[in-house]
Amino acid sequence: MSNSKDTNLSWGGRFNEATDAFVARFTASVDFDQRLAPQDIQGSIAHATMLTKVGVLDENELESIKNGLTTILTDIENGTFEWSLALEDVHMNVEAALTSQIGITGKKLHTGRSRNDQVATDIRLWLRHEIDAIGAELTRLQQGILGLAKAQAETIMPGFTHLQTAQPVTFGHHLMAWFEMLERDYGRLLDCRKRLNQSPLGAAALAGTTYPIDRYMTADLLGFDGPTRNSLDSVSDRDFAIEFCAFASILLTHLSRASEELILWTSAQFDFIELPDRFCTGSSIMPQKKNPDVPELVRGKTGRVNGHLVALLTLMKSQPLAYNKDNQEDKEPLFDTVDTVKDCLRAFADMIPAIQPKKESMREAARRGFSTATDLADYLVRKGIPFRDSHEIVGRSVAFGIAENKDLSDMSLEELRQFSTVIETDVFDVLTLEGSVAARNHIGGTSPEQVRIAVQSAAERLSNRT
Q1: Is 283 a catalytic residue?
Q2: Cα 204–66–130 angle (5° rounding)?
Q3: Angle, alpha carbons 329-335-338 (nearest 5°)
Q4: 165: which DSSP letter?
Q5: Which listed residue (162, 284, 412, 463) is catalytic?
């Protein structure tokens, strides 16, 4: 029978048998949680600083711990740190290296804490940093949208419902719809960050510690708004990770919708835009092909991120309080979600400003499909005809146009008047594409003036972000 020396030294004292080699590999997390090392070291320095204040460590011990951890972080950043699977996770790898460097003082660092509150703190610190980076990239994407929307405030294109031509809009107006979707995403990201920013450090394994720790101090040192309020909840809560993945799923859904439109618009059937070659690929067999691979991949990665959200919800749904080994499974979906979101945002932020609209193709598409039919109905209402009757009149005029292969704007006054005698020459002011978009000159409307106002207002909101 083996003794505890064959087991993990952080918990092997009560064990009389070595851990099975497969089980050791199966339960270890160091292969993926080593990316938390900077936050683990940051938390350890704050914890040691607090332990010194309350008299558990002296100043010399604190200085030794800080110097040792700084050296370890440098080794990790330089790629010279040797990670050990036998030590299970990032926390024990760092602690073992520290003890190897500075001796028994390194063993004192874990006083008053557990790996349970340690990892909960690390993930929050890591995700907070990533949220800030994602917020900055999301802002960069929105700035790119605003630049393109301002430049295309007067570019006519068809607006669609059911993917059928509905009413004319402008390309700038359409882009601002994307902006507003992303603006809600940014708000959700800030809400997630606010709820995340509480410190679990000091909750220990599940019930706190008998040492006279100062949780407010460590929370302040780590930039948290304050300590969490319940030790059981502190170590077992992963709501912040789920909430982030929910934000990510909605964001990727928005990017996927935009991707679908970009894919359609680059097709020969639409021919609305040109994407630069650097965002596309070709075919190995068809020389003429130019495939919109970047938006296609973003569209595809949405399913990946949605899956991670479901994985985390399923992970947490049956766990009793407090910490359980299940929670080790929170990191890989969260890490991959963050990486995927950052990559997709970077791709879009680089690609959107480089879009080249094909204005004539867009305008011609808007001209087809009787897109000013609603404007004609509104015109008749202003002439005193009830809307339902106006709807019927315009429907018959459209049927005539289909039979004669004529758009409403191509019909003569005499042809239009056969459907209603109230129609006069001023009708052509509302049947033009430019007149149609200009007439919707209200907040959120399609007129170039309103698009420019929306862009200016949005730019001011972005400038106020910190």
Answers
A1: yes
A2: 65
A3: 140
A4: E
A5: 162
Report the chain's C-alpha Rg in angstroms.
31
Helix (H) or strand (E) holding 141, with range, is: helix 115-151
Residue 15 has pLDDT above 50, yes or no: yes
**DSSP tag of 291:** B
Helix (H) or strand (E) holding 166: strand 164-170
The pLDDT tens digits for 332-367 are 999 999 999 999 999 999 999 999 999 999 999 999
Q: How confident is the model at residue 22 (pLDDT cuts 50, 70, 90)?
A: confident
Q: What is the mean pLDDT of residues 100-113?
A: 97
Pairing of strands 273-274, 356-357: antiparallel
Three-state SS at 114: coil
Q: Tell me, what amino acid is at 82?
A: E
Out of 254, 283, 397, 409, pick the active-site residue: 283
64 catalytic? Reply is no
SS3 357: strand
What is the token pair recorded at 87?
Answer: 């030590």
pLDDT digits (tens, 9 = 90+) for 118-129: 999 999 999 999
At residue 274, the 3 state secondary structure works out as: strand
Cβ atoms of 403 and 418 closer than 8 Å: no
Q: Which residues does residue 356 pair with via DSSP β-bridges, in sequence order? A: 274
Strand partners, 168: 158
Say if CB 119 and CB 328 are below 8 A apart: no
- Quick one: the chain helix, strand, coil %, rounded to 5? 65, 5, 30
pLDDT at 101 over 90: yes
Residues of 267-298 as b/e, b for ≥16 C-beta within 10 angstroms?
Answer: eeebebbebeeebbeeeeeeeeeeebebbbeb
Residues forming a β-bridge with 160: 165
257, 267, 272: which is closest to 366 by C-alpha?
A: 272
Residue type, 462: L
pLDDT recorded at residue 11:
52
pLDDT of residue 13: 58
